[in-house]
Amino acid sequence: MTYVDDVASTLVAAAEDERAWGRAWHVPAAPALSVREVAGRACAAAGVPRPRLSTMPAPVLWLGGVFDPLARELRETQYQFRRPFVLDSSAATTMFGIEPTPVGEAIVETVGGLARRSGTRAAATPSAP
Known about the structure:
InterPro entries: NAD(P)-bd_dom_sf (IPR036291). Helix 2 (35-46) packs across helix 7 (103-118). The model is unreliable at 124-128 (pLDDT under 50). The chain contains seven helices and no strands. The protein is mainly alpha-helical.
């Protein structure tokens, strides 16, 4: 998971530094967590019950893709959800000095922002578990 503020910081830094031009950069990201762990932390920050999550078997996802374009696209990216999806962002951290936002802080800020946008009240605390 990559926090949107870290994406913005990296884009600005890469645009402002001519040494960055002409190559791809991985945005600094906190250590990889499972979707289940991120969902659990987000629910804790929002003060709602933990979700019941399950995986969709590949044949069911394939069949769904016959009828639904989103399911069809998920067939091609499901590997990102079935095992750790880790990338090396050390080059951007070294070049721009950008450290990833801690996961707990990113979740609290994201849940709070979504709650404000939807007009609900989240129980987000200064640090998510």
